[in-house]
Amino acid sequence: MAAAGVCAAAVLLDRFLGEPRRGHPLVGFGRLAAAIERRFNPADCRDSPRARTAGLAAVFLLVAPFTLLAGLAARGAAAPLVEALLLYLAIGARSLAEHARAVATPLAAGDLPAARARVAWLVSRETEGLEEGEVAAAATESVLENGADAVFAPLFWYLLAGAPGVVLHRLVNTLDAMWGYRTGRYRRFGWAAARLDDGLGWLPARATALTYTVLGHARTALACWRWQAPAWESPNAGPVMAAGAGALRVRLGGAASYHGERRVRPRLGAGEPPRAADIGRALALVRHGIWLWLAVILAVALAGGAAGA
Questions:
Q1: Of the candidates 79, 81, 67, which has an alpha carbon nearest to the alpha carbon of residue 166?
Q2: Distance CA 256, CA 248 (A)
Q3: How far is Cα 241 from Cα 232, in angstroms, rounded to an integer?
Q4: Three-class SS of residue 309?
């Protein structure tokens, strides 16, 4: 029951408070990571095999101490409070909704330049020349993928490994977002963060894909997950976005430009390209998934309590 209470408290804190506007620990962690990267990844060593070793050392140096501290802090009578606070800081459901609605609202009103500007806050692709359907697709993809990374994965790792699991996943995921690019600067150095993030996200991604499938058009979602996800470059984003697109019956993927390079990505989902309203439908899928997870967590806790009585 304690775990169910921690999950519910963290979700409610995020829902009513959102991310801290000032002093968010991840902002400070990002600054520290940037300083470490400048020190460990000098320009004259980025093409050297040593850059991979340096990247691995940087990940360990940044992640291990905070993960250990989380385990030490979450002890004793105050453990549930500490765990709820750490889980709340790792969950970003409200922030994701705010950013997504900031795209959907101007897009629905016909203000394409404003929608392009706001979707750039959500995605790493170039957004200046996106058409209406491409903006909607980019925002929908981001909602579905971040539903896994910023909502369901923290809950999953808390249930599996407590506060250390939450901190480990969130920090590695942050480093991947900073360093996991296949550019000259990060191709070798960011390899360790990217691979570790793939490993930590493998099970949560499939749990998320299953959640989307259950709550949407299940037959289409399963077919898209089975046949389309393997073609996607990311082993975790593929199942999540394929199942999510199938659950919503919209078509995602296709060409997009990243760092000046145009990539032709596989198609995901089925049906028509998304519109502004489909961004809200993707948010609803994530929101309903949260309540489903909480209900299942509570049911399992009650069943365990009854069995032990």
A1: 67
A2: 21
A3: 9
A4: coil
